[in-house]
């Protein structure tokens, strides 16, 4: 029996995924459609496998764990891609997310398709971004291929790989305070181009 301390942990045995990547493989990860065995039932998901943890570098694993914890603990929001969990025990850790069946924003509006959904989708992106900002998260990589279109043609912001949590703890030692303070001056304007 494998006991894990992370509530988001998904065993590799519970995930099956296709070899074909969705879209173009990214620099840090590749997304594929698959299924996840959740409480005895298979459900369709997207599995995002990261290929950047190639060494015993604890910083890389820590960054992955922080990313997973940040995303997993976010309250549910219709315009944020739902994270089911992930696995950090391999050289290629992975996230398991809901499957946004209609692809990304660029594909959805390609060749003038779905024009009638432009404003509702746009409003969904704004609502999702506001939700992130209200939770002190700056996405930092918001672009068309990180906005997915789910059921009912609802926009869902995903790919939190470069997110930054904004804020400061006053309990930090002065030296760490100075280093962190310089980084925390990031503005939500980073999400507006």
UniProtKB/TrEMBL annotation:
The Protein kinase domain covers 17-193
Please name the GO terms that the record assigns under molecular function: ATP binding; transmembrane receptor protein tyrosine kinase activity
Domain of life (superkingdom): Eukaryota
Keywords of the record: Kinase, Receptor, Transferase
The record's listing under InterPro entries reads: Kinase-like_dom_sf, Prot_kinase_dom, RTK, Ser-Thr/Tyr_kinase_cat_dom
Q: Which Pfam families match?
A: PK_Tyr_Ser-Thr
Q: Does the keyword Kinase apply?
A: yes
Q: Which PANTHER family match?
A: TYROSINE-PROTEIN KINASE RECEPTOR, TYROSINE-PROTEIN KINASE TRANSMEMBRANE RECEPTOR ROR
* Name the record gives this protein: Tyrosine-protein kinase receptor Tie-1
UniProt source species: Phytophthora citrophthora
């Amino acid at each position: 029996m494998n006991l894990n301390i992370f509530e988001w942990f998904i065993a590799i045995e519970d995930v099956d995924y296709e070899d074909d990547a969705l879209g173009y493989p990214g620099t840090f990860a590749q997304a594929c459609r698959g299924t996840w065995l959740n409480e005895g039932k298979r459900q369709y998901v997207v599995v995002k496998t990261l290929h950047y943890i190639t060494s015993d570098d604890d910083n890389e694993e820590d960054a992955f764990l922080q990313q997973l914890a940040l995303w997993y603990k976010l309250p549910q929001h219709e315009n944020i891609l739902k994270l089911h969990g992930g696995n950090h025990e391999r050289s290629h850790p992975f996230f398991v997310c809901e499957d946004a069946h209609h692809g990304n924003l660029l594909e959805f509006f390609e060749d003038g398709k779905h024009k009638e959904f432009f404003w509702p989708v746009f409003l969904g992106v704004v609502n999702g971004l506001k939700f992130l900002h209200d939770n002190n998260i700056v996405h930092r990589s918001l672009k068309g291929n990180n906005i997915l279109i789910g059921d009912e043609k609802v926009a869902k912001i995903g790919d939190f790989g470069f997110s930054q949590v904004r804020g400061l703890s006053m309990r930090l030692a002065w030296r760490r305070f100075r280093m962190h303070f310089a980084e925390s001056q990031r503005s939500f304007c980073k999400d507006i181009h």
